[in-house]
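Two entries, shown back to back:
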Amino acid sequence: MEEDIIADNGGQVGYPPAHAHLVVLQGPGLGDFYFLDGGELVLGNDPFSADVVVRDVEVEPRHASIRREPGSGAYVVRDLGTGADTLVNGEPFGGSEERPLRDGDRIVMGDSVLEFSREDPVKAHFYAVLDRLINRDHLTGLLAKKRFDEEFKHHLEAAIALGKPLSVLMSDIDNLKKINDRHGHLLGEFVVGAIGRIIGELHAEEGRRATRFGGDEYQTILPGLDKAEALTVAEEVRRRVEEYAFEHEGALADPTLSIGVATYPEDGTTRNDLTHAADEALYRAKRAGGNAVRV
């Protein structure tokens, strides 16, 4: 369903002007924004099984669903029978009952309130831009660090609860200082942004998240991927950066990337432990001469 929800991925956020959408007006995921399209979408707090991830511990893993009627195009919401209430405009419903959604209806799950809208492209545009201003790094389009840390925490909790792996990448540009010294900081800034977008393009699905960790460092979480699978992703990132033609206003640069990989549970069980382990692996990649991936 990733193609049906054009939000919260590691790359750019786009918005078709007439699509229905949900925005979180209240709760831990305040401001989270999702475009809706296509078939049935599951709402819940489990990033491994929900299409619309509501970051709220009071929400069930698969709490409710929304689907668009093939004929009329109208949207309906259905409670998935977990025993936890789903309300529309303050009125509970459950069982096999489906509740039609109208523009402006508010869905309550746990401590979260999500507003449904489909008839106001100006409002949709506003929420999409606001989401980007609040939750995205201006240079790379990746998640802002604060939002990334929240996502990291939520995905790690889900991995622990379900007994699934989660891998972490720490990446650093090897030769940014040389690029800045030779061509100026404007080209260096372009390189930082372009590498962020390369990483984002590879993390636009399956719950993968990335952020700019510092000036020229990046951090990634890969939910559900073990060490071997994460190494494959890291090597693809490294290769794409090495092969990319970095050109800006007539100047050329040839940056490379070093990447360290760590995985839950063998390398740590907390966000800090996994970040530290991936950082140590990154330094091993640097000491190996750069343009390398290490564990």
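entry 2 starts here
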Amino acid sequence: MHTVWKGAISFGLVHVPVKMFSATEDKDISMRYIHQVCGSPLAYIRKCPSCDVEVKWEEITKGYEYEKGKFVLFEKEELDQLSEQANKNIAILDFVNLTDIDPIYFQKTYYLSPDQSGGNAYQLLMTAMRETGKIGIAKISIRSKSSLAAIRVLEDCLAIETIFYPDEIRPVSQVPNIPENIAVNDKELTMAKMLIDQLSTPFDPEKYTDDYRARLLELINHKVAGEEYKIAPAKPEANVVDLMAALQASIQATQTQQPPIMTDPGPSKPAKKRTTRKTTAEKKENKDEPVVTPKTTKRKTAKKKETGA
């Protein structure tokens, strides 16, 4: 990893020398502007519109436009002096709970590793933050940009996330067309909660992929190989006006995607033995069981009447 910053974390009088590394990377596929006539990539030229000449880097400075067309200019050394001290230190101002910070404040994440002989202090800070469940709120300046930052424990590493200042967050009141005082239908609300419940699952980041980037890479590979590749047009989305119908259709769609729920019927009852009448031939096979036919029964009854039995 490339070191993007070197300095120290300070809390109280404790200083922890650290190096900073970017924790994320941009996976966007970059495109160049090409002259369609000849196929050459276009170059960006720093040209002064007044002098009509290309400007070299050593002739460029920074300026602030305080009125239309009027600027105050700054030398590089002046700006460096403003941020020189801040660039070397991450001063923890407070320790707070992570849940107290709304996600809208977070910008970019960096990893922090101990620098020089700061391993003991680094481990001490990380262990103390892990056991207290707190994160540190600090100030940091990266590439002349001052930011608030949240320092927290991420696995076995300290991570720092730059966060916006409060005045950099636009108020919700500026958002147009937010509905006000609109009554929610109870049945629709029940269906919406049911749909949320069916779609609820533990967060697994591995299941989410950049489908656009994958399709673009596939298209690039086909073009590099000289293959003709056509993309099927997307199906038009159905414009469902009935909100209740949309909710019901959504719930039915989630139910068809889920495996059927198997219920336990309990212990099975023993099957009843099927009783069948024995035939005369079967009874003859059983020596212990006398065979009685209708004729012999009539003879025995007649003998009993003769003997008066």
